Amino acid sequence: MIKRCLFPAAGYGTRFLPATKAMPKEMLPVMAKPLIQYGVEEAVEAGMDIMAIITGRGKRAIEDHFDISYELESQIKGSSKEHLLDDIRALIDRCTFTYTRQIEMKGLGDAIYKGRVLIGNEPFAVVLADDLCTNGTEDGVLSQMVKIYNKYRCSIVAVQEVPMDQVSKYGVIAGKKIDEDLFMVETMVEKPDPEEAPSNLAIIGRYILTPDIFDLIAQTKPGKGGEIQITDALMAQAEKGMVMAYKFKGRRFDCGSIDGFVEATNYFYQQQKGEA
Known about the structure:
Spore Coat Polysaccharide Biosynthesis Protein SpsA, Chain A; 33% helix; alpha/beta
C-alpha cells in the first residue's frame, strides 16, 4: 500500500508575481483553501498519510499551514467561525508532514531526488500542487492511479490530451495501448516542438513512482533548460522495465497559469453555489 506522497514545492511561482514575492504559490487560495491543501486531501483520499514536502527559501507558510495555530484557534473557539478550521484540523490529526529543502532550482527530477531522504525504499506518489484535479464525487486521480499500481506494480504517469500547439509546455508520451485509457510507455520527450512530438498525450502533475527511480535520477544528466528532467529518468526506467501512462478520469486545472487559476476559482465557486 502506498503511504507516502511527495510534494515538490520549492519553485518561485514567477508567473504570479508580485503575489508570490512573499507568499508560496502553493498557498494561493482557490476559494478559501490553498492549492497544496487540495493536493494533500487528494492524497489522503487515496490512502496516504505521510506527506513529504520539498520546500525552499520563503516557504515557511506551508509548514505553518499544516500546524496548529494556538492563538487563532483560541480566538475563534466557540464562535461561528470555528468550523472553518475543521478540514485542516482533520489533515493535521491524520497526517505526518515531513520537510526538506531544495537549495537550487535544478528541475523536477532534482526536486524529487531531494525527497529520497523522506521517502526511503518504497513506492510513492508525487503531486504538483499547481495542477489542481477534481473528479466530482468519484475517485480522485491518485485513487485511480493507486488501483492501477496495485495491479501492475510499476511507475505510472497521469496524462491528458492537449492541443498540438501546446505540447511544448509538457512532457509527452507515446506507447502501446494495453487497456482502456492505459498505455505502456515506449517514448517520452520533455517539451518537444509540435512537429517532433510523439503524440498529444501530455504528462500532468500526478505520478506514482517505484523507488528505483532515485538511482535513475542520480544517473540522469541535465537535459532541456539545463535541468534534471524526471521524464529522462522515467524513460530510462521504461527501457529497463515498465512505465504506464494513464488517461485519468476527471478535470485538471493548470493553476500555475493565470487563466487556469481563474478557471478553477470559477469552477469551484459554481460547485459551492450548487451545494448551498
